[in-house]
Structure formats: C-alpha cells, structure tokens
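Hi everyone,

Forwarding the result from last night's run.
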Amino acid sequence: MTLKCDNCNKHSPILKVLRFPWVDGRALNCTSVCFWQTMNSAMGMNFGFGREMENLTREDRKTNSSTAKEKSQSPTLIRVGNLFMSITYMGKNSWGDCVRSLRQSNEGGDIVVLSGVHGTEGGMATKTMKHGGKTVWTKHKPLEGKKGIIDDSHITDDLAVATSLRSNFNDVGTVSVAKAYGSRDTATSAKLKTLTKGLLDSGKLVIWGWCSSLYSMREYESGTQPNWRPDWEGPVKSVVSSDFAWV
C-alpha cells in the first residue's frame, strides 16, 4: 500500500496513518518535511524542519518539547523490516506504544531498544578527536551549553519503561535496552549499523529510541550544515531506500 499524507497530493489523509504506531517506510511517499510537520502538529508541538528549526529560539524549543512530554503522545514510527525509527520527537514514553502494539498484534520475539544518544533531522553530528584523529559522534554536555549526540542519561529513563513493559508482556519475549554505541571513542553511524544488523540478523526487533533516528545513518561535522538538505523534500521511502538497504 502506498501511503501519502494529507499534504501530499491530498491522497490518503494523515489521520488514517496516525492511527497506527508505525508505517511501512518502504511505501511512504509522504515527504520527510511533511510527515515531520504533521506529526508534530498532532503531538501539540510547533517545531519547524530544517531551516525553520534553526530559526526557533531556545525558549521556543523548550516550550514545545515540554508540551509533548506533558501530553505523553507517541509519534508514529517508520518501520523498515524489524527496525523502527522516528522522524520527529522521541521521549522516554514514546516507544512504549510501539512495544505494546507489537505484543497485542502477537508479534513475539525479543525487542531491543537502542538508547543513550540524541538525533537531529540533520543526522549525527561528529567531531575529529585531537588524539588519534578519529571522527566520532559528539558528546552531550548540557552544563557547558553543548548539545551533542552521546547522552547516557536517556538509558536510565528507557530502562524504567522497559522494566514496566516486561512485567506486562513477559510471556512473549523480552524488552531490553542497550547502548547505541560501544565506546565513546568509536561511536559512529557505521558502528550503529553493525550493531543493529547483528541484532536484526539474530531475530531481534530493534527500536532506535531517539529523536529523528531515521537520519542516523548520515553524519555531518559539528558546526556545519548537513549537505543532504534536498532529501527533506523527497519521499520518506527514498531515504529508506538509500540508507537502509542493509535491513
């Protein structure tokens, strides 16, 4: 089935899509920009996308994020095989509905939620290490006013959600949380791909539990602009086709 949102040629109203905790990314003709904006609107947020996002003040972003958390609404995730990703906001309660729906639809098997990182619609920000010259994901340092990729505080939140879910669905497989990277000094999208593929090949269902995780196979140098902005105007299935043929 080909899926389009209400803003894409007025074909299939987005509300029909939003009734489900996920949609098939390989069949989603809706553009990334359109899906992002419609999802955020449904969640009570006013985030922009791309350059619009850059023009928001820090206070605007804080207000919108708080609104979504208070509403505790979960985004509709993009499903590619047994990998689930988000185009928009993801919080500590966001992926729980996906797990519940999987269990209620009798999709058994172990679920692994990869956690401990942030994401953006621009992909994963990187930096070159002073010693060794490796290019790795940036670290999140809120006390220094630096928003980076690696942030282990999310793991604690996700572990609490997983514990609650396990008590409800312990007869059809486990729900566990794991780091989305091995070492802070080797954290890259290539490593994430290797980790995820290993889990999928072993029969696990995998959720990338961070914001804008659909774009996590793309990296850009911190402080610069992503060089793939035109893709935001293209269909989601094109991003899936170019970035997730390995799934």
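The radius of gyration is 17 Å.

Cheers,
N.
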